[in-house]
Write a structure and sequence with these properties.
- The chain crosses the membrane at residues 6-26.
- Pfam families: Band_7.
- Residues 176-228 form a coiled coil.
- By secondary structure, the protein is of the alpha+beta class.
- It folds into four domains: 2-65, no CATH class; 69-172, 2-Layer Sandwich (Tetrahydropterin Synthase, Chain A), CATH 3.30.479.30; 174-229; 232-262, no CATH class.
- It is 51% helix and 26% strand.
- The protein has a three-stranded antiparallel beta sheet with strand order 3-2-5, with helices on one face.
- Helix 3 crosses helix 5 (140-155).
- It is rod-shaped, with a radius of gyration of 48 Å.
- 12% of the residues are buried.
């Protein structure tokens, strides 16, 4: 009886040790999913976050991260006007947590190099070919949306979800950048010349306006002289001549030989 008990205890102990060695528990961390492989075959079931019990030897668990990832890619492409464009873009994506088993079965672990990179390359090239080099710079938000749309179409059904897409940078050839710089200088010079022309025209208009005003004033004076027989004009000039020296206009003036005459300022 005692021997049988010892055998039972030893058996239980061995089973316990084997249990620990084989490790029948698996922990799926936050932001992960577990793909179950039964004798290497992908199961239809997916393990969520938490602690799970598996059948050792028979079952193997592949843990995949389903949190948002950022993937940056450099793409050499061409614009609509055949300008070389060195584009740097970034994709934010995550694996579809409900179909990670299909992803593993159809693509495996190299989904970035096998699916994401080619999709980005094709999408960027297709989109940039729709815009000229200048439009790529001036209509950047529109270019971004077009690339994002292309990515959605290519990654749809591939168990990869696009969260966001951004254009990090567009670099053009040195020849094109020099051409753009020359164009900007020419535009600035043209603007300066236009401003100078506008200034000259404005000054000419001012001179014409001034000349017209002076001519009108002369005309009015001439009409006044004609109507008054010239007397008021003579009086005005006589008064102005005296006033220039800062003196008051005299009402009595003594001539040679003691002759005096009175100038009537109130005469009309």
């Amino acid at each position: 009886m005692r021997t049988k008990l010892i055998k039972t205890v030893v058996t239980v102990f061995v089973i316990f040790i084997m249990f620990l060695i084989l490790n029948p528990f698996v922990k799926i961390s936050a932001g992960e999913r577990g793909v179950i492989l039964n004798w290497g075959a992908v199961s239809d079931s997916i393990m969520d976050e938490g602690l799970h019990l598996i059948v050792p030897i028979m079952q193997k668990i592949v843990q995949l991260d389903v949190k948002t990832e950022k993937h940056e890619v450099q793409v050499l492409t061409y614009s609509k006007d055949i300008q070389t464009v060195d584009a740097t873009v970034a994709l934010n994506y995550h694996l579809d947590p409900n179909t990670v088993n299909k992803l593993w079965q159809e693509i495996g672990k190299d989904y970035e190099s096998r699916i994401i990179d080619p999709s980005i390359q094709e999408s960027v090239k297709a989109a940039t070919a729709m815009f000229t080099a200048q439009e790529l710079v001036e209509q950047r938000p529109k270019v971004k949306e077009e690339i994002k749309k292309q990515l959605f179409e290519r990654l749809n059904g591939r168990h990869i979800i696009v969260d966001d897409f951004s254009i990090v940078n567009f670099d053009f050839s040195e020849e094109y950048e020099r051409a753009v710089e020359r164009k900007q200088v020419a535009q600035q010079e043209a603007l300066t010349a236009k401003n100078k022309l506008e200034q000259v025209k404005m000054e000419a208009e001012q001179r014409v306006t001034q000349a017209t005003a002076e001519a009108e004033a002369i005309k009015i004076q001439a009409e006044a002289i004609t109507q008054q027989g010239g007397r008021d004009y003579v009086n005005l000039k006589w008064i102005e001549a005296w006033s220039k020296g800062g003196s008051h206009v005299p009402q009595f003036i003594t001539g040679e030989g003691g002759a005096n005459f009175l100038y009537n300022l109130n005469s009309k």
